[in-house]
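Support reply, case 0932

Customer input (verbatim):
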Amino acid sequence: MKTPITNNRAWLSAPYLTGALLLIYVAVRAAVMSFTHDESLTYTILKGDKTWVFTGNHHVLNSILAKSSAQVFGYSELALRLPNVLAFAVYFYFLHRLLKQLKTPWAVLAFALLFFNPYLLDFFSLCRGYGLGLAFSAASLFFWNKILQTGDHQPVRWALLAGILATYSNYSFFAFFFATSCAGLLLYLQASQFRLRRRTFFDLAGGFLLLLPALWHVGELMKRNELYFGGDQGLLKDTIQTLAAKCLYEIPVDSDGTGMQIFSGFLLATLLGGAIVFLVKKGSGSLFHFIFLAFLLSLLFPVFLFHVFQVKYPMERFAIYYLPLSGLYFPAFFQEAFDGKLKKWPSWALGLCLAGLAILPFVKGANFTYTNNWKYDANTEKMLEVLAQETHDGNISLGVNPLFEPAVNYYRETKGYGWLEKVTRESIETNKFDYVYCRLDELGKLPGALPVATFSETKTCLVRVVKD
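Our regenerated output:
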């Protein structure tokens, strides 16, 4: 039975309006933020440079879609980021449909966790594969849940396809694909008394064949030691805590402090409670049962890879696939655990308080200037605009910290800065450059350099070199 608040038209339309505003936020950021280091390396791949193809920087599906967008709209920041901007609409559509299975206070909490995470939103404004991976993972979750809700085997192929597309968007989503596929199939087989339809078998075989090129590519990356970013201190410290710290965005946190220990204890307690609820409450078709099993398997998968294949634990953005899983798991757990045990208003109070806490990082960190992982590139475009205004005869040379080299060369080409020589990663101490763009703490390497502009947000500066 609908309550007055859930039957109110304004209340029902609020999520769609919020989603539209968030899409605008994502699109505006994609249009105005300076291009970043990793995006600029993707740009070189699109322009035919093979240097970065067999590296972790090459997100296959993102490169394909960005190239297609560039052929239509050119190589501007927004054009290259457009596939990920549109991916947010896909992400919102499928997860919002899943939220309809949650009661209102817990749906509000899930909405805050899934759509107001500033770190997650960063990747829908970038030319990287993470936003696409999140969108396709949302679609995969929706289709697996539909299979379990209806018993219909038809969506299996769509669930598998969406998971495979997430994997090709970024190979870190392979863990997501494995966890959700195993969870969905186990519960589906349980509901069908472990009878596998022939068509479902062919869907699984086809999915495996589609994954073979990705598995080969991952193998090549491992041979070249390109999957070097990660940790060896354990799932909790390397994966969970680093991702949680990033999600806090501009809220400082000590990885070994009380706050992180409380969060770790909360996670472990909810997982233990979830296991109890999973075993006690029968219902393989419920959203909770599917999300709990998928979340649990996704946590166990990196542990297995580390101990068997010595694959490092994913950290920070390489573990971003946990955000849609955890964003659904916590509210679904609270609903299952407290259903019938809490009265209406205590449930609302708890749900709204937790949602308010979840939104705080967005309130503090929302901006149109930078992203958390590549904040150092926030002023690269602005720096070049300042340099363009400097009086100079003929071509000039610019020395940079290696972090800035890809983005500077991207703007050199796309803005037509023919007066600027191609930037290299040569040391700024060689005294061969006319200008240098570096971090403030590197100025000691450039005695006598004359300041041109300082950028406080990135703690960087542009200086003119006084040559002997």
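We compared this against your earlier run and they match. Two observations from our side: Residues 9-365 form one domain. The longest strand covers residues 450-455. Please reopen the case if you see a mismatch on your end.
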